[in-house]
# Entry
Amino acid sequence: MSSLMENLQDRAEELQAILDGITEPLVLIDPGFRVRRVNRATLEFSDESDFPSVLGRKCYALLYNRSGICPFCPMKEHHENEADFNREFEGRNAIGREVFHVINDQKETLYLDFFPIKKEGKVVSVVEKISNITRLKEKEDENLRIRNLASLGTFISGVAHELNNPLTGMSLTLQNLMNNLSSVDPDFFRKRLEMIKEDLTRAAMIVADIISFAKPDKLVTTSADIYETILKAKDSVIWVYPVLSKNVEWEILGEPGTYFQFNPVKMERLFINLFKNSLQAYDYGEGKIRVEIRRTRNMLHVFVEDTAGGIPESMLDKIFSPFFTKNKSGIGTGLGLSICHSIVREHSGELTVRSYNRRTRFRVSLPLEQPRGN
Ligand SMILES: Nc1ncnc2c1ncn2[C@@H]1O[C@H](COP(=O)(O)OP(=O)(O)O)[C@@H](O)[C@H]1O
Ligand SMILES: [Mg+2]
# Structure
């Protein structure tokens, strides 16, 4: 008999040694929220010196200095006088929670795992494991900051390049005008002034994109013709990018007079951005931009399609993120599609993309009736 007892004693000591080897606090809690067993890490966590001063105490008081059940406890609906914890764990092997906790005046982030212990189908106690994930979180934040800084760098160099093109253009045209001041040909002057105006518009559009990203203004809608708006966007893009669009053909399928409530200025910017991306994808080459307007009973869909090479599958979920750009030679701010996305969202619509066989197809879907409040 005594050897059996010794054996049991040995096993219990072994088990405690294993638990104490685990550096994260482990706490066995009964349905009365009383602490039944802990490992050594729990003593340190709760600032207690020995096991007897811990056992039998309420878990919320011991671990979190609270006078009642913790608001984040997955068993908080459970009454302390019920015999078991059943409902909380129905069909689950564990419940996890991320919580803030103040330790020595420092705010720490803890991850709590709750594992049920079952006996004849009933949850008779719960093991709580406490992991301090503060350092891990800080590392994640640090990585995010580094990634943001890298995106900011790409963005700034993109803006600088994009602005540099029209600025260089204007500077060359002005130089050319100055060298020919003695010329009396008004056509010559008009042509040069037009070129400067184009470059100015191009620079202003880049600045407008940045402003609308940084500080989107409130959506004001009027009844307008989407077909007209799309034609205007096409003309603006051709006017601002005459060389890029020189070899590109346009097909616009739709009917004039497709009126509904939207913001024509924002909608034009959306299509300018989509068209500009297609032109840049053709990269001065030949091609076609196909636009199709389709109206259903309560939705309007506009498809913008090009065959300029497509977008790799792995990139599709990133292109709408601000600052994401893969444009050649460092031009591009990575804001275009992110702005398109927010314009469509403001109109309670949806912007989606598909790409296959070197083809890219954006779909803008807008409700014909704007929900109230817009
Ligand atoms: N029609 C398209 N064909 C191929 N790639 C595209 C097309 N439209 C967008 N992309 C890709 O999506 C990226 C993000 O576009 P966008 O947000 O407008 O930023 P940016 O044009 O400044 O790079 C582009 O850099 C490009 O790689
Ligand atoms: Mg773009």
User: Anything to note?
Assistant: The longest strand covers residues 106-119. Residues 167-367 form a domain with the Heat Shock Protein 90 fold (CATH 3.30.565.10).
